[in-house]
Amino acid sequence: MTSGERAPAIEAVDLTRRYQLEGVAVDALRGVSLRIGQGEFAAIVGPSGSGKSTLMHLLGCLDRPTSGVLRVNGVEMSGLSESRLAELRNRTIGFVFQSFHLLARTTALDNVALPLVYRGVGRSERRARAAAALEAVGLGHRLEHRPSQMSGGEQQRVAIARALVGEPKVLLADEPTGNLDTRNGAEVMAILDRLNADGGVAVVLVTHDQEIAACARRQIHVRDGLIELDTGSAR
Amino acid sequence: MRGREAFAMALEALRVNRLRSTLTMLGVIIGVLAVVVLVSVGTGAKDAVEEQISGLGTNIILVVPGQLTVGAAPTQSRLSLADVAYLRRVVGDPAKVTVSLQSGETVRVGRTEAFVTVIGTDQSLTGIFERPLAKGRPLSETDVDTRRRVAVLGAEVATRMFGDVDPVGRQVSIAGARFRVVGVYATIGQTFGLSRDQEVHVPVTTAQRMLGVDRVNGLAVGASGPDEIEPLQRKVVDALTARYPGEKFSAVTQTQLLGTIGSVLGMLTGVLAAIAGISLLVGGVGVSNIMLVSVRERTREIGLRKALGARQRDVLAQFLIEAVLLTTIGGVIGIVLGVGGALAIRSFTEVPATITWWSIALAFGVSAAVGVFFGVAPARRAGRLDPVIALRAE
């Protein structure tokens, strides 16, 4: 993807998303335009119900906009089939969720290797890359542990390793510190910051917490389905 | 995603929910077990009957008045000994035609009594039917001509009446009349559930006098080879029809009897298999049910997998393979238990159970098909889940 290298990580033009809730149309997004460059660290901030989660689902290609154009790493998503969209998620986007979303009875190593399963990577290579990703988040000694044997902070670091193992362009972190205490939260934020600085992956943080959002180099405030304030790209 | 990965994932999911997987499989296990056991019992019964029929002897044509159909009451006979003599002339060899007149009678020796089938027959019987003697001699032409009160006992009658004593030369009372035992047949077993070792053979003329009739129940004609059966069959029926115009006579061969009974028992086996198949179907519904529960329970997991790049068909494959694994593992266990059960039935009961390879292959094939059929709806539901909604699920 030579064009992808130069294209912004995310480019959204006038995105809207309308839901039908029991027959009533709800406009979760009412025209959002946004550009996040390669390697940027941005936070989408807003109270609950502001539309920030809807925006994150769209940016993560988990959902399709009602109207508007969305390009992820230069790829226009509107024309893609379900399986092409899955492939785009697999190769371009890494997710970190508030509640970790680890498979409970699966070891850290296999949890981290999961995205590579859907990419058709062989078992030994998968395990090697998963081990390296766990090493990168400081869990090289926890490879065979199950989620229940780890602290919340460790679980979220496993989830970050899983998001990174496929070498995505964009890491979408949805309230990554929401279920963690201050110390573990700070540690997770430090890891995200380091990965962004060292690895060049664009990080998009979705949060309602101003303090967490302040860690990012750019803040995008969302309210009532619109961007209220964008501190702008540093680059 | 590669097939091996999907397979490993499905196996892991079954292993994690071990108790539930086992209980779900149990339905399939019972279904397959029932198919294998019932089909082998049905097939065994068919084999046994066919063996009994061919055990009668070879190349035998049974002649009875009227139309012979399985299940219909026999027509009142009008055949007499004169007809036997007539057929002997038609066939050309007296030793190739024999006769029977049957009646249930009480046999007594001292205080021992038994109710047996008394068959009036003649000297040609042992030349046509497979009827080896253990002791003494068979009925002779003189016995028949002079209406001697002599009897040849079936093996079981002899043991029951005389125990270890040699019955030959001793007296036995049949329907109140005294007979002298001249021979004892060797054990030959059952035909159609009737023990043929419980028969007592007496000269047909003696039987006619005892019963006060001059008819016989039926005739049997022996052909000298398989090729002769059909022409001889036609010849006998034509001769009897010529003698009694407007009446019907039937001549059936073992092959025809085998065919009729074989098809009846084949149908019975089919019905048994169908009943067993229904239980397999119920097992399949159980699989469908548990897969739906499993999809619901793992909604978040499905959402996560999709977020990580699983396509609809990856998720579908995972759940479908899980369902098929459930039914095929259940199927294999059912087959093993079914074969064991059939072997146990064969060794511990009188029921002859024959294990057939086709029933095993069918049971396995059907259980795999049940997995696909009942697994596809839950698997599609899983594949189509919206990742956003699935990730939010409780």
Written description of the protein model:
- The complex is a heterodimer of chains A (about 240) and B (about 400).
- Chain A is about 35% helix and about 25% strand.
- Chain A is built from 8 helices and 10 strands.
- In chain A, the strands form 2 sheets. Chain A has a 6-stranded mixed sheet, sandwiched between helices.
- The two termini of chain A are about 20 Å apart.
- Chain B is of the alpha+beta class.
- Chain B is built from 13 helices and 12 strands.
- In chain B, strands 2-3-10-5-7-6 form a 6-stranded mixed beta barrel. A two-stranded antiparallel ribbon of chain B has the order 8-9.
- In chain B, a hairpin with a 2-residue loop joins strand 6 and strand 7.
- The chains are: A alpha/beta (about 240), B alpha+beta (about 400).
- Chains A and B meet through helix 3 and helix 4 of A and helix 1, helix 10, helix 11 and helix 13 of B.
pLDDT below 50 for ≥5 consecutive residues: which ranges of chain B? Answer: none
Percent strand of chain B: 15-25%
Total of helices of chain B: 13
CATH topology description of chain A: Rossmann fold
Helical amount of chain A = 25-40%
Tally the structural domains of chain A: 1
Question: Oligomeric status of the shown chains?
Answer: heterodimer
Number of helices of chain A: 8
